[in-house]
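Researcher: Next sequence.
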Amino acid sequence: MKTRIVIAILASCLILAWVTAYRTRQNTPELNRMESRPRPKLIIKWKPRNKATAVPVSTRNQLPTAARPAANQLNSKTNNNSMVESPYNEKPAPPRVPAVVGQHRATPAKNKYRATPAKNKYRATPAKNKYRATPTRVPVICRSNEQAKIKSTWFASRINRNVPVFLNKVNSSLAGSARRWWLSNMHRKDISLDAAIRNLIEVVPGLASIRENRASCITCAIIGNAGNLQGSGYGNLIDSKDFIIRANKSPTKGFERDVGALTTHQIVYPESADGYHPGATMLVLPFKEADIRWLASIFTTKNVTRGFWRHVPASVSGASPEKTFTIHPAFLHYVHTVWLSNPPGKWPSAGDVSIVLGLHICDELHVMGFGASKYNRWDHYYTARNANAGLPIARIHHPAVKEASLRNKLQQDGIINLYPGKA
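Model: Next structure:
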């Protein structure tokens, strides 16, 4: 009897609790709406900073406060540049620290040095490009000749920078052994050399130097008239030099491919002045007193027409006193005695005088158009080449053998660049 009473009481309590819970649920609609609402899904976006890191941008802040998931419920198992949908109840991933990881990956030591390697650093400003970028020419030592001049004791024992090169008001006197040597080669002994020189200086004052205060390396082409220039193809090489010095009659028209087209300086004496290139600086060789009187007359009286072995022009077309220089007689004596070892009864040729002159006014010398033909004759590039062309070496009024030895020695010591031409 008692057991039945207890069971009835418990059943009554259960029924009362269920009825109470039901009524409570009916009276709270907000709670019913939350339970019936579908659970929202969280969308995670990864916006990469660089190849090494990515910062997640979450849209969970857009959800209601009651529906926001906890931070540890987000799924971080994702790849860069991807979109991942993650439910709330997914197992959370261990926390990540993108800033620390990205910091080391963004600037690794290897990439840091790759950006500015030592090799590229020096390639950016090499010494060669540094000087090429300079708009004006800088003073430099020439490619090889200047160094060779320093090393050659033979050259150092002969070069004399104190010898006057051009005749002017400062050095117009001629005395000593140079005067005696120069007068001994003249036929007339009753002339006044000093008066002739003073008269010339009044017409052609000259300059002490022909370099025009140039500080940079001056390259020169010294061109003779030898027949080995035919077919040589030196024309472009010759025209690329600063000074292009020719001797005597040296036509260029029709021979440009072999001898070039330009002339900056031309060495002449009265008998060869008819081959002068108008506009070039005229360098006159005074082998005798009559040559000094002739040079003064072509700009004044024009009354000297008689030369040593032929008539000479009374005037020279295109020449002017401002671009005319007289090679000093003492310089001829210097070439004859020092460089050619004083051969008796022989004058130095205009070609070899131009080479020694180049040693004084140039820094780098390129010499071509010298030497005898294979027939041992002095022929010319503007005439036919055969066994009868030119004069035999024995009939030349210049020390041809010694001049050839001089050129070869200068080439051997690296003082000049001697071109053999086409045999």
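Model: The first helix runs from residue 2 to 26. Confidence is low (pLDDT under 50) at residues 51-90, 97-105, 120-140.
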